[in-house]
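Why Threonylcarbamoyl-AMP synthase? Reviewers of the renewal asked for a concrete example.
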Amino acid sequence: MTETKRWNVNDDIDYKAIIEAAQFLRDGMTVAFPTETVYGLGADATKNSAVAKIFKAKGRPGDNPLIAHVATKEQLFKLVENVPAYVENLIDTFSPGPITYVLQSNGICADNVTAGLSTIGVRIPSHPVARALLKQCNIPIAAPSANISGKPSPTTAEHVWEDLAGKIAGLLDGGPTGVGVESTVIDCTQDIPIILRPGGVTREQLEEVVGKVAFDPALANNKEKPKAPGMKYKHYAPDVPLVLVEGSPREIQETIDKEQQAGKRVAVLVSSKIVGSVNADEILSLGETMNEVATHLYDGLRRFKQGDVDIIICEAFSEEGIGQAVMNRLRKAASHFVSEQ
Ligand code: TXA
Ligand code: MG
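Here is what the prediction returned.
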């Protein structure tokens, strides 16, 4: 056990806290910090021993590579080589923001960041606390989501604390994150960019800038091996089983009734549009728009614990725009296992 230092940077960015947290990172320690998507667990991406602490704290499989976070485009280009021309266009449009570019690594980052791959995922977050931290420490920071591997990603400092207190050196509490789902991971090593993980930047937005964008076929079926190693793991699992109902409010209610008749205590996650049409033991509205649903999704998945309820029933949402990322996470949360490869 380590004592985890917690800094509050909720209202105004406290530069003393940023300076101290940056020094922790420069000294090879782990610090969790908010980004616009979810909280990340950071460590010096150039130091193998620092990065190893991330894998240990999260219980993360060693073959799942991490994203390197930097403050500027110039810093991003220092970590990669053979960059296709369209990438600059993407960066100028979407970064800083919720997008990660997979590019050829030039070997500056430690081997365990890329899990031995020749490529590296790089991202420029837009959250003011993340940006202040990255500028202050002036090194690339490897940072996966700051949760125990397999659990829903953290969108509040409390989620991080619940999972990692005593296992990490520090936590910058910047309040709830905004986007709510992780960055879009996009393979930019080919002529046409390929979405490996849908996220905060939508396919529609990407196509407006670079024309055709492909999808990793593994996103649509369970047969192929995903190109983003992390997409194959057990992920986003709530404390109790989750059932996704693709159907009308009436069909959702029928599913609830059936579970209750079987003696189960049922929690329901729905948009505010249908919250008035369902009845269950616990009901949580995730918001009205798809952006709001994305923002509140992981908090919803973490809210219901064993002992309180036996099952969570969730509405299936439209897959347009950010709905694609939301449904990708919900399908995983419902299946617990996408593939066993
Ligand atoms: O929004 C986010 O991306 C958050 C915040 C903290 O930045 N980070 C995050 O990291 O979600 P993580 O480690 O939980 O997810 C990274 C995903 C994994 O599925 C991983 O396999 C994939 O990106 N990935 C990383 N590097 C890769 C590479 N070189 N090739 C293919 N996939 C890669
Ligand atoms: Mg993660």
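The longest helix spans residues 290-303. This is the kind of structural detail the renewal will allow us to pursue systematically.
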